């Protein structure tokens, strides 16, 4: 066995997602280099000067949106959660659980969840928001591989480790099939930490390209539509909101 034979079966490394700081006049650059190409990007400090960073705390959320009904989650398949309670009750009585609550964008939730997000901004406006996900979670929790429309994940507190790959059924059938295989292998009751432990080291053998990044407070992660993504929290708590948009002209 030659020296290079020792390494021929090793999976190639994950690519680091581009980490870019966009200025006030960089909208064209974002659209040309990332949005139009459906390429993920870590937008460094993209929300650092938005009031969400100063205002959002558990106390602020309880006082201003305490009656909002949220999902209570114990695994990494939040889309099928069947337990719901008020945000106030969640924070006060569900220690060790998570919430990732999907809701349609409408005037009633615009009054709170969007008043601390700068609008318009370089990345989205109220005209193309379709849904949003409010989230709060604990260390080692997260989400298993899934995809949806274009999304902008705004992190207020904590740090998150992201992994993603193209899983568009038309343009990346291999990635799409892998995502569906993960759905079968990791059903309701499964946890992201197990996926990271068992699957991450072989992922790049199964898809053409896979990306990763570490998201920190004030960062925005852009996930292109169709991209499968899985996330694990690497700090004690994370808090933020995901804005899902449609590609309206």
Q: Could you give the topology of this structure?
A:
Elements (H helix, E strand, L loop, with lengths): L14 E2 L2 E2 L6 H9 L5 E3 L8 H4 L2 H8 L3 E3 L12 E3 H7 L5 E6 L2 H7 L15 E10 L3 E5 L4 E7 L2 E7 L6 H13 L6 H7 L4 H4 L3 E6 L4 E4 L3 E7 L3 E9 L4
Parallel strand pairs: 1-11, 2-3
Antiparallel strand pairs: 3-12, 4-5, 6-7, 7-14, 8-13, 9-12, 9-14, 10-11, 10-13
Describe this structure in words.
The protein is of the alpha+beta class and 249 residues long. It has a single domain (18-245), classed as Jelly Rolls (Sandwich), CATH 2.60.120.650. Helix content is 24%, strand content 30%. The strands form 3 sheets. Strands 2-3-12-9-14-7-6 form a 7-stranded mixed beta sheet, with no helix packed on it. Strands 1-11-10-13-8 form a 5-stranded mixed beta sheet. A two-stranded antiparallel ribbon has the order 4-5. The longest helix is centred in the C-terminal third of the chain and has 13 residues, at 173-185. The N and C termini lie far apart (58 Å).
* Intertermini distance: 58 Å
Q: What is the CATH class designation?
A: Mainly Beta
Major sheet strand order: 2-3-12-9-14-7-6
CATH fold category name: Jelly Rolls
Average pLDDT reading: 93
Coarse morphology: globular
CATH architecture: Sandwich
Q: Count every helix, treating DSSP H or I runs of 4 or more residues as helices.
A: 8
- Overall tally of domains: 1
Taken in chain order, the helices and strands follow as EEHEHHEEHEHEEEEHHHEEEE
Helix content: 10-25%
Write down the Rg.
18 Å
Low-confidence stretches: none
Strand content bin: 25-35%
Task: Characterize the biggest β-sheet.
Answer: 7 strands, mixed
The count of strands amounts to: 14
Under CATH, the homologous superfamily reads: Cupin
Structure class: alpha+beta
């Amino acid at each position: 066995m030659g020296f290079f034979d020792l390494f021929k079966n090793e999976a190639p490394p994950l690519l680091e997602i581009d980490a870019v700081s966009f200025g006030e006049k960089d909208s064209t650059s974002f659209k040309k280099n990332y949005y139009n190409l459906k390429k993920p990007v870590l937008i460094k400090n993209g929300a650092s000067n938005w009031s969400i960073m100063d205002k959002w705390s558990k106390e602020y959320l309880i006082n201003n949106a305490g009656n909002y009904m949220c999902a209570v989650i114990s695994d990494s398949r939040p889309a099928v959660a069947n337990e719901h309670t008020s945000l106030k009750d969640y924070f006060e009585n569900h220690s060790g659980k998570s919430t990732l609550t999907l809701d349609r964008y409408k005037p009633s939730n615009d009054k709170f969840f969007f008043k601390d997000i700068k609008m318009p901004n370089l990345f989205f406006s109220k005209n193309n928001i379709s849904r949003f996900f409010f989230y709060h979670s604990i260390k080692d929790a997260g989400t298993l591989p899934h995809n949806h429309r274009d999304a902008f994940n705004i992190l207020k507190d904590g740090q998150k480790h992201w992994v993603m790959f193209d899983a568009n059924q038309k343009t990346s059938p291999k990635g799409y099939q892998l995502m569906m295989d993960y759905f079968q292998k990791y059903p309701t009751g499964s946890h992201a930490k197990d996926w990271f432990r068992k699957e991450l080291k072989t992922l790049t053998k199964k898809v053409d390209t896979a990306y990763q990044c570490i998201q920190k407070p004030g960062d925005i992660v852009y996930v292109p539509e169709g991209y499968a993504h899985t996330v694990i929290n690497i700090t004690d708590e994370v808090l933020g909101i995901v804005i899902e948009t449609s590609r309206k002209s």
